[in-house]
């Protein structure tokens, strides 16, 4: 069999359709895909020459856009030195320097860093940290997690168990996964103090009832991502911190999607003045160049899990601390600081708020939500994804709607004019969805 010609687009698409699985797609009846030839700035160049603004930042990771000179240089320089080396028994400057940078920018008290290889794996590691910490505290019976409905934490088994068991994407596996404890979804970001307190009372009751078997609490702070782009008040995070302290639970905040500026503060938990016991980061960490995640924890968690019967954290991926990924992550964090990420996110946020506001009155629209560089339009019906995607492409924008949502998470560097273009693409998608 002769190799495929990379310029033969029909042949590529035909082989892709017959043999290549895509995320959440049927193999026997796959959704349509487009061939991307290149990417630069905030634009993807599709086969045939059309260029479209990427409203998704490659699933929220390419915060600096594409073909970024500083990230290209960091990757090339590290590749010339060492692309990979096992992390068991060895270490290297990119990993150590990245850990140093993460500790310096993260909330005070998070002192120890585990470098994982994806967002889902970072949550798996965090769950293990909570379970092992409780074993180290002499409470092996504390093996369940408290979380909230509407959450999404990844596709691996442990992560699926703490995703929404009924309305989430993994509901079909609910019967074979560990049974966790689920509180109600937090109220909307516009909730009154009374609504927040009503929700808090339910969480407190649930925690009190199950405290003897709970190891920790795990939630996405302020924004539930793939569970529905749901935003909720910072006060809810403070309640969860209080509940964790009251019952000596490990508070895990999954900031794989929200961390590193996406919601308007460097970490979403900062908006609530809350410091977790364990923090998960991913997606934007390498600016979308390579897969890498990080789990940060307090000294107490590190000490307690080390006192468990194994004496060590029971996890060790083959590509842990990959030098290429660590080097580009360092360059990405440097760019966030030097380019002024906060001003960029504020500009994008203002543009999304102005550009999506008119859709509040559009037919079929239930809600419009904006938080930092995140915008979501919720409909009263499931989106016709192929039609909505094509409508956005016709408007010069790449979007990936899901469920009842047409949403955007563009690169932070997206200009005011391109944010307006993205909003126009959302409007066209909503019209046909």
Automatic annotation (TrEMBL):
InterPro entries: Aminotrans_3 (IPR005814), Aminotrans_3_PPA_site (IPR049704), BioA (IPR005815), PyrdxlP-dep_Trfase (IPR015424), PyrdxlP-dep_Trfase_major (IPR015421), PyrdxlP-dep_Trfase_small (IPR015422). Its cofactor is pyridoxal 5'-phosphate. GO terms for biological process: biotin biosynthetic process. Pyridoxal 5'-phosphate binds at residues 119-120, 254, 317-318. The record marks 24 as: Participates in the substrate recognition with KAPA and in a stacking interaction with the adenine ring of SAM. Its main location: cytoplasm. Substrate binds at residues 59, 152, 283, 316, 400. Keywords: Aminotransferase, Biotin biosynthesis, Cytoplasm, Pyridoxal phosphate, S-adenosyl-L-methionine, Transferase. GO terms for molecular function: adenosylmethionine-8-amino-7-oxononanoate transaminase activity; pyridoxal phosphate binding. Pathway: Cofactor biosynthesis; biotin biosynthesis; 7,8-diaminononanoate from 8-amino-7-oxononanoate (SAM route): step 1/1. Homodimer. This is Adenosylmethionine-8-amino-7-oxononanoate aminotransferase.
